[in-house]
Design a protein that fits this description.
Helix content is 36%, strand content 22%. It is an alpha/beta fold and 171 residues long. It has a seven-stranded parallel β-sheet, with helices on both faces. Helix 1 links the parallel strand 1 and strand 2.
């Protein structure tokens, strides 16, 4: 059985949360053992548990952010859970230092797959490209949700292993 650990830094039920819950509801439980890491008190916790998956809460994490305590806590969770595959969600360079730090260290222990909503944000800043490059070096493979994001990915990491799965429609 392949162990898959999903990390989501968002505590509300936005697009990333909906996509995660839809993915969990349709996951093949006969081949994959899956758990989800969320900030404590996340609105997503009941939805994930209702889908039948365990939630591991980050006590030091805040919504859409990870400080040094949270990064250490997440790395401990990953080491204790021992996933074969680590899935992280990325949509802005704000997450690059924390998620890049985690994924670059965990890459030795498991495969790291990044789901990329954006590679370059809609309102770009001078620091987006270098921070995103830092983050991408921790990924073994990427999933983009549209071709435009795939093109942005190849501009920053021409050798990226990636696939595009079109962004789903939400009901």
């Amino acid at each position: 059985m392949i162990r898959v650990l999903n990390i989501l830094t968002d505590s509300n039920i936005g697009g990333a949360g909906r996509l995660l819950v839809n993915y969990l509801r349709n996951f093949d439980r006969s081949e994959f053992e899956t758990a989800v890491v969320l900030p404590a008190g996340s609105d997503l916790k009941p939805c994930v548990e209702e889908a039948g998956y365990p939630v591991i809460e980050i006590q030091n994490g805040r919504d859409k952010s990870m400080d040094f305590k949270a990064m250490r806590e997440v790395m401990r969770i990953i080491r204790d859970w021992k996933p074969d595959v680590l899935i992280v969600r990325y949509w802005m360079s704000w997450f690059a230092p924390s998620l890049g730090y985690i994924t670059r260290r965990m890459k030795k222990h498991c495969k790291v797959i990044s789901i990329l909503d954006n590679v370059i944000p809609h309102e770009p800043h001078f620091f987006d490209a270098p921070l995103t490059r830092y983050f991408l070096r921790g990924s073994d493979g990427c999933v983009t949700l549209c071709d435009a994001v795939g093109k942005d990915l190849f501009r920053l990491k021409p050798d990226a292993v990636h696939t595009t799965i079109p962004h789903p429609l939400y009901s």
